[in-house]
Amino acid sequence: MYLAGAIAVVLAIHVSGGVSGGHLNPAYSLSMCLLGRFPWWKLPLYTLIQLVGSFAGAAAAFALYYDAIQDYTKGNLTIFGPRETASIFCSYPAPYLSIANGFLDQVMGTAMLLVGILAIVDSKNKPVPQGLEPIVVGMLVFSIGLSMGANCSYPINPTRDLGPRLFSAVAGWGLDVFRAGNNWWWVPVVAPCVGAVLGAILYQIFVEIHHPLAKDEEESPKEKEAQRGDMKEAQVFSISLDNPLSHRL
């Protein structure tokens, strides 16, 4: 399951990378807005499209495995019990998991995701070769799933969890998909956004601000303006020397 999800991320980034920059996660899009790398006005539109895409993906999976689900459940679509099938579509906490611990789980997982992505695409750090970014991001998602998926199946993406949850609510599982797990549904929506912002801040503090600046970035605007003025004076002086009248003088 974790491997299939990681491969899906790789393919999704390859498909959408040239159109949207590979924005599959509103938590990631939010952090890019805060870093000034993505316009704020696009955030609501991207989030809506990501939600619609997640809903459509859940609908496609339901259609593909409809007969299997009906055979397994005998037509009784449940959220709890040995034959529950709601977790096919979205996350639910383990019986032992509290809301607070689940929130922390999602904050940490998404923070790790953002730190990893920012490192992968940071040209001043040790970026991966161009074209391999989707594969390495997929490996990152796979590792987060393996190491942190036991508590609540590592949603780390608000729309990836909310879209399928909305679909399962209308497809037969009912509104209990929002009540289950002590009203768990809001945790994978809010916590990844908090984690993404935290991850972006941590990368800025511990890595990005320590990059050596390029020579032109080290100079202040006044110094650059003064240099441009000196260059203009030098050009004028050079022209005057090349003027035949100057030799006569």
UniProtKB/TrEMBL annotation:
Keywords from the named record: Membrane, Transmembrane, Transmembrane helix, Transport
Q: Source organism's superkingdom?
A: Eukaryota
In what ranges is there compositional bias, type Basic and acidic residues? 216-233
**Membrane topology of the entry:** Multi-pass membrane protein
Main subcellular location: membrane
The family database entries (Gene3D superfamilies) matched by this protein are listed as: Glycerol uptake facilitator protein
Residues forming coiled coils: none
- Reactions the enzyme catalyzes: glycerol(in) = glycerol(out); H2O(in) = H2O(out)
| Matching Pfam families | MIP
A cellular component term from Gene Ontology for this protein is: basolateral plasma membrane
Task: Name a GO molecular-function annotation.
Answer: water channel activity
Q: Which residues cross the membrane?
A: 45-65, 103-123, 135-156, 184-206
User: What subcellular locations does the record give?
Assistant: Membrane
Q: Looking at the record, which segments are called Disordered?
A: 216-249
UniProt record similarity statement: Belongs to the MIP/aquaporin (TC 1.A.8) family.
| Protein name per UniProt | Aquaporin-10
Biological source species: Xenopus laevis (African clawed frog)
